[in-house]
Amino acid sequence: MRNLAPFAIGNVIKKLNRIHVQINSKHNRPFPKPRCFWLSEYAYKRRYVKIHPDGRIAGGLSRFVTSLVDFSFIRSIVAHKYKPLGCAYDPVSLFLLELFRYLEKYPSMSDFVKTIRDREKGKHYRLYAGIKYPHWPCEGTFTNLKDRLGEDLYNQILHVLVEIAELLSLLSYKIIATDGTLFPTNARYKGCTYFCDECKSIEFRGVIENVRRRILYRLNNPEKIVPGKEIRVKVPCPSSNFPDDVKRPNVEVLTLFLKEADPERPSVFNRIFILEKELYEARLDLMVKRGVITRFEMGESISSDTFFFRCPKLPADMAARIGVRRDPQNPNRKQKIFGFNAVIDTSIEMDLGLELPVACSTLAGNAHEGKHYIINREQILEHHGKISKIDLADAKYDEHDNFAFSRSHDAIPIIDYNTRNEKTTAAALKERGYDRNGWPYAPCGTLTRPNGFDFNCQRASFTCRRQCVSSKNPEIIEYAKSCSHWINYHGFTKHMS
């Protein structure tokens, strides 16, 4: 049993005093913006921390975290993203508010912003983060911070926090587990999975002539005129992300309709599509119902005019994709999430009963998660120079490169087997030579048993343990009479990677 006395709150605070000096001396880049332009200012202040006998923390996790850790190093990490002129929030203040939101388990940023602006409920959050009236942030403030910093700087901040935990002896890196989790984006999914950058500006040459011809056809055939009925203008989808077996659809870029004319307020689209005279005589107005024009290029004639439209199925967040996971409420069902996949490496500290994140990378919801196993391990090597002894992962990471990477760093990879589209019947497994757990079959057909890990060969060892002695299968008994491995103490032996 590990001695937990060094982790008493008093001993931890003493260690943190030295750690803060070490961290701040390493991250000492000056923040370029003068204080007169700051809309907020974070300052580390140690506050009394009381932990009740039942484990509750007086003041909550927000008070606990800000009382122990000095987050001033964040200014040095993000300093190059700021300029001397112009007003801005202290990045430490906004980072802490984001952290408080997750610590206090607020479902959305909008709910948390309402709490921050509440005079009573949000006063302690504003105090810890250095926010003062009237400079209270809105949702857009946090979006702007994320766009300004980007994933790389957030990762640098994470690894400084991991370094603090390591200096407190909370991390050993002996067992590291890798897993991904889907989280939704704030953008709304609009029905298309194969969108790309080309969908932001879809070219349509001669759109004025196209609309004019369709309206004139209706005016020449009055029975075709139905006021309010949609007239849809479509073009072939320009996306190159469609698979070969999926037909590209036509994209609706512009939707119009005719209505009874208003003599006092004639529609401006009558003039744009050069139909002012014809529609005036028919006592109709042309209206646009849907369509987003990003830019246009006027040619010498209406047939050469080029308009560029934004696809109506293009979401605001183009980096997000649809990922699939097990429904938390019903494991037998699958749940689709439009957003991102966060691949997190967690250090499992068995003697402390802790699981602490040590690396993270994000990717689109439908991206190949298995490739980030090595990316996260390289993060740990780059920032902390640590390697694990045991690597844990689920079947999404069952790839040869991942096994080879772990073994090249003297770690034991324990990764769940991914059957993919293989046949897993009893006969097929025997023909293949090993079962779904990776345990090999002996020549007689019995399933071998694990016999430890061979560090010299970096392989798991399996033996049949001479099961034929107690077997009642006549085929196995007959084979044992001439088995060349029967004389060995463990019988048949094999190494598996």
Give the termini separation: 33 Å
> Which structural class do the helices and strands define?
alpha+beta
Largest sheet: 6 strands, mixed
Number of domains: 4
Portion in beta strands: 15-25%
Could you give a quick summary of the protein structure above?
The chain has 497 residues and is of the alpha+beta class.
Question: Would you kindly provide a written description of the structure presented here, covering whatever features stand out?
Answer:
The protein has 497 residues and is α+β, with helices and mostly antiparallel strands. The protein has four domains: 5-170, no CATH class; 176-185 and 320-415, Nucleotidyltransferase, domain 5; 197-309, no CATH class; 429-496, no CATH class. The chain is 31% helix and 21% strand. It has 14 helices and 15 strands. The strands form four sheets. Strands 1, 8, 9, 10, 11 and 12 form a six-stranded mixed beta sheet that branches. Strands 2-7-6 form a three-stranded antiparallel beta sheet, with no helix packed on it. A hairpin with a 7-residue loop joins strand 8 (321-326) and strand 9 (334-349). Helix 4 (91-103) packs across helix 6 (123-129).
Key phrases:
497 residues, alpha+beta, Nucleotidyltransferase, domain 5, 4 domains, six-stranded mixed β-sheet, three-stranded antiparallel β-sheet, flat
List the helices and strands and how they pair.
Layout: H1 9-26, H2 60-68, H3 73-78, H4 91-103, H5 109-117, H6 123-129, H7 139-167, E1 175-184, E2 202-205, H8 207-220, E3 231-236, E4 250-260, H9 269-272, H10 276-282, E5 284-290, E6 293-297, E7 306-309, E8 321-326, E9 334-349, E10 354-364, H11 372-384, E11 390-393, H12 400-408, E12 412-415, H13 426-432, E13 449-454, E14 459-463, H14 474-480, E15 493-496
Parallel strand pairs: 1-11, 11-12
Antiparallel strand pairs: 1-9, 2-7, 3-4, 4-5, 6-7, 8-9, 9-10, 13-14, 14-15
